[in-house]
Design goal:
Blueprint lengths: L6 H12 L4 H9 L9 E3 L4 E7 L5 E7 L2 E5 L2 E8 L6 H16 L1 E3 L2 E3 L4 E6 L9 E7 L5 E7 L1 E2 L5 H6 L6 H4 L4 H7 L3 H19 L6
Length: 215
């Protein structure tokens, strides 16, 4: 078994533990909500387990997976999975995560159980020609019923820095800068990354000084 802790995962975990309130704007943007930015936020524990994962080159490996972010606002539970690239196991992994979460909030009595599935979204840091616009899990039942459990994916490369600031999507900033990874690694060119980081810094200072919500 190989236990992996990618840099993107480490960044995401740091933000969720130290800056969880910043994700209120992310939830509002993804799911069309209007939670106030001072709403009570509860980060739920993640459950680790083993899964068969497809790597970037198409090979398979067994690794421990930890759901990236389970957040509860009011009575609603949200599952956010941060993904560096598209792979064939994502939909089944989301299904596994979702059932783990749903079990925590299930209600039951003799002969009847209600299992409330959380809202979910996959946040793709990078995009390839295979990156899907949405993630769909189809439940098929013996009587022929089929139910689609689906959500639009977030693809960071489609966001502009102006939109991120306008919508207060500050947790996306580290992943936005990932678009310059090749420039930095292969050419040693950091100018574009530095310019955008300076833009975000200046805008966040401006918002703070004018009463904008930087927490």
């Amino acid at each position: 078994m190989q236990k992996k802790t990618p840099d993107y995962d480490n960044v995401f975990k740091t933000m969720k533990s130290k800056h969880k309130r910043l994700f209120i704007s992310v939830i509002n943007d993804i799911f069309g909500k209007e939670y106030p930015l001072d709403a009570k936020v509860e980060v739920l524990p993640s459950e680790g387990y083993l899964t068969d994962s497809e790597t970037a080159d198409g090979s398979k490996e067994i690794e421990e997976q930890i759901s990236d972010f389970l957040i509860k606002i009011g009575s609603e539970v949200y599952l956010l999975e941060c993904q560096s690239y598209d792979d064939g196991s994502m939909a089944i992994r989301i299904a596994e995560y979702a059932f783990i979460v749903a079990r925590q909030f299930a209600t039951w009595d003799i002969g009847h159980a209600t299992i409330p599935m959380p809202r979910f979204s996959v946040i793709y840091v990078k995009r390839t020609e295979r990156t899907p616009k949405s993630t769909i899990i189809t439940f098929k039942f013996p009587d022929g019923q089929e139910v689609n459990y689906e959500s639009e994916n977030v693809i960071i490369e489609e966001f502009t820095k102006e939109y991120i600031v306008e919508k207060r999507l500050f947790p996306y900033i580290p992943f936005y800068i990932a678009r310059y990874e090749k420039e930095i690694a292969s050419e040693g060119n950091i100018e574009n990354a530095v310019s955008d980081l300076e833009y975000f810094r200046d805008e966040m200072i401006r918002l703070y000084q004018t009463g904008g919500t930087i927490r």
